[in-house]
């Protein structure tokens, strides 16, 4: 797929993130918009997930450890044709499958229920170990927030993945520098994340999380790395694509009103 096609998918995904959060009048737009290019690259070029195999374990797996960014995952699943696009307007409604945090028991393509930060990498570790034990050559991907990396369980899981030489596991750390109510450095500074993952025995690649060529090359390098898991330290802009949301922590978990939604959708069309 060429970069223009990927950009078009990412644009649709971002518009559907804004539409879901706006319609629900709640949700997390900032960290969803920021990681949209990473997930577009993963789901449209790297992983072998399709509408036909979405409910199967016999494919590459993805764990959205930063589960509050469910509007991103749902928009990606709709863009892939795995869930109907119209269903996005049920996001966060009573009886909808598309709850505020993703539920693996209801939504095809959701491989782990997440939302309590810190847990996803441990689950991804387990999937990677199980794949090896079962002779399943599929890979496991996990998206972690840099704020989330302040959770201790992330580091237990990082230690375990290196111990088990899980080279079928690739974690992406979405480094937007912002948390729920301030910068990551103000809350509990997690940096330097590259040095920390290296010290925990991981292969580390630093990458621009909005550059499809760089992301493609990084995922390829991860695939070819043997004997250890790979961490992509991906620099991103929280709120990317919407002028008034970019790098603004106020849009971590706030829904735009009708007027703001119109501006956001116009920004994303440009
Ligand atoms: C265990 C736990 N503690 C606190 C929260 C509340 N919370 C939701 S999102 C968030 C900040 C996450 O920051 P980051 O991982 O950097 O996400 P991003 O900026 O990419 O949205 C917090 C503290 C939670 N969901 N789970």
Verbal overview:
- The structure is a single chain.
- The chain is α/β, with parallel strands linked by helices and 270 residues long.
- It has a single domain (3-269), classed as Thiamin diphosphate (ThDP)-binding fold, Pyr/PP domains (Rossmann fold, 3-Layer(aba) Sandwich), CATH 3.40.50.
- 41% of the residues lie in helices and 11% in strands.
- It has ten helices and five strands.
- The chain has helices at residues 3-24, 30-34, 36-46, 70-79, 120-133, 152-163, 184-188, 193-199, 212-223, 258-269, and strands at residues 61-64, 140-145, 169-175, 203-208, 230-235.
- It has a five-stranded parallel β-sheet, sandwiched between helices.
- α6 links the parallel β2 and β3.
- α1 (3-24) crosses α3.
- It is globular, with a radius of gyration of 17 Å.
- The two termini are 22 Å apart.
- 51% of the residues are buried.
- It binds thiamine diphosphate.
- Thiamine diphosphate binds next to α2.
Strand order of the largest sheet: 1-2-3-5-4
Distance between the termini: 22 Å
Question: What structural category do the secondary elements indicate?
Answer: alpha/beta
Listed once per kind, the bound small molecules are: thiamine diphosphate
The SSE string, one letter per element, is: HHHEHHEHEHHEHEH
Count of β-strands: 5
Q: Low-confidence segments, ≥5 residues, pLDDT <50?
A: none
Q: What is the CATH C level class, in words?
A: Alpha Beta
Count of the domains: 1
Describe the global form.
globular
Computed over alpha carbons, the radius of gyration is 17 Å
């Amino acid at each position: 797929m060429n970069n223009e096609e990927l950009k078009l998918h990412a644009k649709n995904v971002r518009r559907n993130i804004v539409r879901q959060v706006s319609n629900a009048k709640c949700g997390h737009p900032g960290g969803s918009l920021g990681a949209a290019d990473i997930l577009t690259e993963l789901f449209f070029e790297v992983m072998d997930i399709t509408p036909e195999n979405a409910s199967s374990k016999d494919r590459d797996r993805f764990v959205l450890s930063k589960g509050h960014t469910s509007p991103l995952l749902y928009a990606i699943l709709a863009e892939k044709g795995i869930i109907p696009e119209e269903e996005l307007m049920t996001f966060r409604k009573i009886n909808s499958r598309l709850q505020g945090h993703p539920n693996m028991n209801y939504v095809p393509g959701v491989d782990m229920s997440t939302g309590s930060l810190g847990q996803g990498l441990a689950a991804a570790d387990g999937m990677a170990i199980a794949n090896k034990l079962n002779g399943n050559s599929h890979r496991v991907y996990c998206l972690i927030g840099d704020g989330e990396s302040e959770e201790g369980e992330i580091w237990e899981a990082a230690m375990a993945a290196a111990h088990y030489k899980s080279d079928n596991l690739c974690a992406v750390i979405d480094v937007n520098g912002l948390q729920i109510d301030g910068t990551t450095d103000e809350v509990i500074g997690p940096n330097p994340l590259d040095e920390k993952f290296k010290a925990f025995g991981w292969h580390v690649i630093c990458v621009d999380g909005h550059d499809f060529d760089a992301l493609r090359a990084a995922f390829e390098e991860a695939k070819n790395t043997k004997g250890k898991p790979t961490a992509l330290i991906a620099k991103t802009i929280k709120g990317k694509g919407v002028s008034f949301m970019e790098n603004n922590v106020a849009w971590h978990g706030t829904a735009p009103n009708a007027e703001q939604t119109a501006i956001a959708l116009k920004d994303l069309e440009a």
